[in-house]
Amino acid sequence: MDYNKYYTRLRQKLDHLIRTSSRDDYASVSALIGRNHAYMQQFIKRGVPKCLRDDDMEKITAHFNISIDYFGSPDDFPNPGLDHSEIMETEFEAEYIRVNVYDIEAAAGAGSVVENNDIANKLAFKKSWIRSSSNATADDLAVITVSGDSMNPTLYDGDHILVDMTLTSLKNDGIYVLRNDDMILVKRISLNPVTKLCTIKSDNKFYESWDGCQPSDLDILGRVIWMGRNI
User: Fold this and answer.
1) What counts of helices (H) and strands (E) characterise the chain?
2) What CATH code would you report for 3-80?
3) Chain segment 119-158, per-residue pLDDT in tens
C-alpha cells in the first residue's frame, strides 16, 4: 500500500471540505480537535503531521456529517512489485532527507586545511524539520566536524554541524562557516545595522574578535543550522 498517496488524497479531500464550507476555516477545524490555530493548515499544506489521530478524524467526520469512507483507505493505492523492505525504504525516503557527512573539519580555532571533499557517511533529517528552517535540498546541505575550542561553550571539538550552503550572504546574525584561503573556519558573525559592517567573533572569550569587516569581503560557505555531539 502506498500510504503517501493515501495521505495526499486525504489532505486534498479535507482541504476541499474546509474551503467549500460556509462556516469553517483551517483555524476553526483546528480548534474543533483541540489544536492550535495553525495545526490544520500545516497538516494540509505541509503534511505536518503526516496523519491525524483516529479520535481527531472522528470529530472531523462527525462535524461535517460524513463517513470515514469519504477519504477512502490505503488499500486504494496498491504498491505492486515491492517487497516489505522496499516499501519501508520508499516510506523512509518520502519522510527523510539524507545529508552527506564530509571528511572536513571546520576550525573553531586557528584554522583547518581543506584537503579533500570525501564523503565519510550520511545523516538522515526529517524533511519537515528541514523545511521549517530552510529551503535547501540534500545537495545544498553538508555535515562537517568542528575542530578546536574557540567556539566553546556553543560548539566543542568533535561536534558535528549541519551547514545550509544556500545561506552564503550575511542577512542575519548567526554562526557561519567561512573560507579563508585554504582554511575553513566556523565563527559567529553579527552585522551592525547602522554601519553595515560585521564582527567576526568566537564564543570563547579567550579568543580575539575582528570588528569592522566588510560583509562583501567574506567568503561565506554557509550557515550552521544544527549541531550534534557525542555524550
Assistant:
1) 6, 10
2) 1.10.260
3) 778 899 998 888 888 888 888 999 999 999 999 999 999 9
